[in-house]
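Ops channel
N.P.: pipeline sanity check, posting one input/output pair.
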C-alpha cells in the first residue's frame, strides 16, 4: 500500500508552517513519486485521489463526499482555500505591479527604502583616490499598514451536500476575485498617497480634463525618467480615453492585434484596469522598483467550523499590505 493511503489527517496540521499541504508533504514527499502515475500531483491532490474525490469537470462529486470519513473531512478547508486562490489568480494583476513579495510571521513590519538624489541616479566616474558615491538604504519610520480582506461563507451542510463540487467552486472563485480586487485598490492607494512615510507620488496635471493626448503619455514617460514606464494603471473612464487615442487605432497595430492577440499599449507599457480607482487619475510606474507586497497571512479558512460543524459560517480571508520601495518609481497624472 502506498504511503499516502496510510496518513491520518488531523485539523492540527493546518497550524503547521505551510498549512495542510506542507504537513502532508513532510509525511508523503512528492519526490518519491517521480516516474510513477502519480507524478505531478502534490500531497493534497494524492489525498483527493485516495478518497476518490473529484473536484472539477462534468463528473465532479458532490460536497458530501468530503464528509464520508474523518480523514476526508479534514481536506475540505484546504479545498476551499485552493478554489479561492484560483479566483485570485484569475483576477490577479498584483504580480504585474510589485517589485518584491515578502511573507512575514506577525503583524509588525518595517520595509526599507532607497531614495537616490539627482547625482545618484546614474553611475558616476570616480577619480583615483576619490570617495565612491554612496546609496543610503534606510528603514521606514512607520510600519506597513496591513489590512484584512475576506468574506463570510454562510451555508449549511444540508444546503450543499448534493451540490457538485465544481459548481461550488464557482462561488469560491468569485470570493477570490473579490480579494484580488481589494488588494489592487490597496496598491493603488499606496502608489498615489504613499504608505504613511511621507512618500506620495509626484503629481502633474494633463493638458485637458476630457481627453488624453499622446503628448500626455510622452510627458508621463518623461516624468518617470530615469525609471522605465512599463506599467500604467487607470480607472474605467481614463482607460477608455487611452484606448481611443488616435495612435491606439493605428491600422498596422490593429493588424498585429488580430494576428498575434497582443493589444497595442502606450509606449509598450502594460495597461492595468482598476475599476474602483478614483476617476481622473492615471498612475505610471516602473514595476521593478515601485512597490513591495507584504503578506502576513495567506488565504485562510476557519478550519474548525468547516471540519467540526459541517460548514454553517466560515470566514475566508487574507492579511496583506503594500510598501513603497522607491518613491520616484511612480508618477500620477491628474486630469484636473
Amino acid at each position: 500500500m502506498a504511503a499516502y493511503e496510510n496518513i491520518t489527517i488531523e485539523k492540527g496540521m493546518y497550524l503547521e508552517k505551510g498549512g495542510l499541504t506542507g504537513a502532508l508533504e513532510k509525511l508523503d514527499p512528492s519526490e518519491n513519486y517521480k516516474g510513477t502515475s502519480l507524478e505531478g500531483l502534490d500531497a493534497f491532490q494524492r489525498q483527493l485521489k485516495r478518497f476518490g474525490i473529484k473536484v472539477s469537470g462534468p463528473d465532479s462529486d458532490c460536497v458530501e463526499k468530503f464528509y464520508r470519513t474523518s480523514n476526508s473531512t479534514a481536506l475540505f478547508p484546504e479545498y476551499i482555500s485552493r478554489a479561492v486562490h484560483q479566483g485570485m489568480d484569475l483576477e490577479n494583476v498584483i504580480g504585474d505591479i510589485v517589485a518584491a513579495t515578502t511573507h512575514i510571521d506577525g503583524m509588525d513590519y518595517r520595509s526599507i527604502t532607497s531614495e537616490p538624489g539627482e547625482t545618484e541616479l546614474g553611475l558616476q566616474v570616480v577619480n583615483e583616490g576619490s570617495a565612491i558615491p554612496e546609496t543610503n538604504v534606510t528603514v521606514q519610520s512607520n510600519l506597513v499598514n496591513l489590512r484584512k480582506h475576506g468574506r463570510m461563507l454562510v451555508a449549511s451542510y444540508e444546503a450543499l451536500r448534493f451540490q457538485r463540487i465544481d459548481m461550488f467552486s464557482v462561488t469560491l472563485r468569485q470570493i477570490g476575485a473579490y480579494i484580488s480586487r481589494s488588494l489592487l485598490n490597496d496598491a493603488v492607494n499606496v502608489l498615489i498617497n504613499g504608505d504613511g512615510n511621507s512618500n506620495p507620488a509626484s503629481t502633474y496635471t494633463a493638458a485637458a480634463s476630457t481627453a488624453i493626448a499622446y503628448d500626455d503619455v510622452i510627458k508621463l514617460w518623461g516624468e518617470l525618467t530615469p525609471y522605465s514606464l512599463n506599467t500604467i494603471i487607470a480607472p474605467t473612464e481614463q482607460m477608455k480615453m487611452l484606448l481611443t487615442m488616435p495612435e491606439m487605432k493605428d491600422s498596422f497595430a490593429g493588424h498585429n492585434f488580430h494576428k498575434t492577440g497582443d493589444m497595442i499599449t502606450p509606449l509598450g507599457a502594460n495597461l492595468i484596469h482598476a475599476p474602483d480607482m478614483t476617476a481622473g487619475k492615471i498612475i505610471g510606474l516602473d514595476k521593478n522598483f515601485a512597490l513591495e507586497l507584504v503578506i502576513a497571512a495567506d488565504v485562510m479558512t476557519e478550519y474548525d467550523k468547516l471540519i467540526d460543524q459541517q460548514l454553517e459560517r466560515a470566514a475566508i480571508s487574507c492579511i496583506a499590505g503594500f510598501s513603497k520601495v522607491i518613491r520616484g518609481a511612480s508618477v500620477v497624472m491628474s486630469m484636473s
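N.P.: looks fine end to end. The CA atoms of residues 234 and 318 lie 25 Å apart.
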